[in-house]
Amino acid sequence: MRRLGNRRQALLFFVAMTVPCAVLVALSLNLVRQERELAQRRDESERARALEQLHNDLSVRLERIRLDEFAAERKGGQWLRSGAYRRPETALVARVQDGAIALPWDHDPAADRQRERISEGEFGRMVRDAEQLELAGAELQRAAATARKALDRARDPVQSAHARLLYARVLWKLGRGQEATRELQALLVTPQSITDEGGVPLKLYAAERLLQTGVDSESAARAALAVAGSSPALTPFACDLLRRLLEAMPTAFAEEAGRASARVRSQIALMQQGEALRSDFPRLKIRADRWLLYGDQPWLVSAAPAGWPAAVIAVRAAGVLAEIKNTWNSRGWATVEFVGEGQGQSLGDAFPGVKAAVALSGAGELLGREAYRRQLVYLGLLLLVAATMFSAWLLWRDLRREVRMAELRSQFVSSVSHELKTPLTAIRMFAETLQLRRGWDEDKRSEYAATIVSECERLTRLVDDILAFSKAQQGQKTYRFRPVGLDYIVRSAVRAVEYPLAQQGFELRTKTPDELPRIRADADALEQALLNLLSNAMKYSGDSRTIELEVELSGAEASIRVRDHGAGIAPEHQARIFEQYYRAPTPENELVPGAGLGLALVAHIVKAHGGRIEVNSAPGLGSAFSIHLPLEDKA
Length: 635
Description:
Elements: H1 2-69, H2 79-82, E1 90-97, E2 100-102, H3 109-119, H4 121-136, H5 140-153, H6 157-173, H7 177-187, H8 202-213, H9 217-228, H10 236-247, H11 254-284, E3 292-294, E4 299-303, E5 311-316, H12 317-329, E6 334-339, E7 345-346, E8 355-360, H13 364-369, H14 371-436, H15 442-474, E9 482-485, H16 486-503, E10 507-511, E11 518-521, H17 523-539, E12 546-554, E13 557-563, H18 571-574, H19 587-590, H20 598-608, E14 612-617, E15 623-630
Parallel strand pairs: 10-12
Antiparallel strand pairs: 1-2, 1-5, 3-4, 4-5, 6-8, 7-8, 9-11, 12-13, 13-15, 14-15
């Protein structure tokens, strides 16, 4: 009972304290509300007059733009393709045909005329024959000859450019890169007006191929930038190709390409919104007596005035509204903001979706009282945005790592499959040859049998590398350390690669001291690491056929160095070549099979032996990999 009484007293005390406070708060809020209502009523008439004037100003500006664009007849609705808009605020003008919008880039009479030129007579027949032979795949020589004849028969620049592009494409497929490059370079100087059926200038195709191969990339870059300078006259297909070319520009053209890319991306966005407008046109009910707000990059869309051919006009809302806003704000007696759905006041049926908030100069006191509350809200928003951005960055980093690892695993599977297929194919071929050619002499059979054994050893090494790396990743790789002669390890590795070296015409130059000490090591693992370095030297030697293997003793460590004279490794890639699955992204490496495991496995083995591995390399000068092992016996 006493506890119940205490609770009752506490409740009464709480009510006695809070009820007066609540009444005071309610009275204060009521006074604030009344003051706000009075201020709102006082401003209502001025705001209504301001909104009416704002409606009139916007109507006048848009009507001037519309009349300017329709002041002269444009034949074929080619305003955009000819770049003939009179006002910078105009985004799009398009005719309406059969109840649908005909966008300016849909039809190009010049492209039609070019198609007729390349299809006519004997020239057209040769072009069709060459294209059919090219598609057949097995008739590339005939396709090249036919395309060459078509090029010789060309009677004007249009025919010449199309035949030259076809000829260069076939030459490239035949592996005649230098000839194809000369033809592509000739295409770079063709007029931009010569296009394919999609309106893509043929010179862009030539620039694309030259930029991909890195041959004469400067001329290709300048040609693409020249086309980008007139990007408003391009079709969607041409803009898309040009965007990709600008993103692949050499570093020397980065600044120009950045500016051009921004223009092209803006044009692509305009075209995409134009396509969306065409799709939505039946339901929008666009009329001449109103301006409809439309799109992510908002347009004010209306129809042609009475007496003009059926058409629609789209004006960039941001430019027009910003101009009106600046004019009004400069008057001093009122400021205006154009706001989104759910805010402000509508400007009437003539502007569906357009809303504005007008603040009169007398509203400054009310805004001042709300300033502190807004500051708190802004601070909360700032903290929220900061936390959200940090969380998004963490998520993006993790997702990027996962995507990169997925790509590397996919590349690894493809590379391993290719490397497994190569020795298996060789083994099967020589085994079947031995089976069918029974009358051969003993030397020939011995040679084939040795090849089969060599490929089997190669296959075994690949499988061993994969298994060893898998165990190392899972922490299950164990090493059996015991005293072993360093010369034994080196001789075993050299003996294992003697036959592959001889088959490929390599000369292995070895240089070792007369006496090598014994070290505490896993002989099989160290031999596997050395074999991986020798195998890499064979793969990346290029035209060189000399590999050097050198063993040195220096103080308390021994160094095993494998040097080749091949392609070499750029400095920016040297820090990552010991990562799993990583291969330097160079054109030379794309031609060499590999899984990206060899050096990672070598690094793991050397680290397990308490040593270190170093690389000394430069592009075009070869590479030298050095394994440094401690000599002290830890037994």
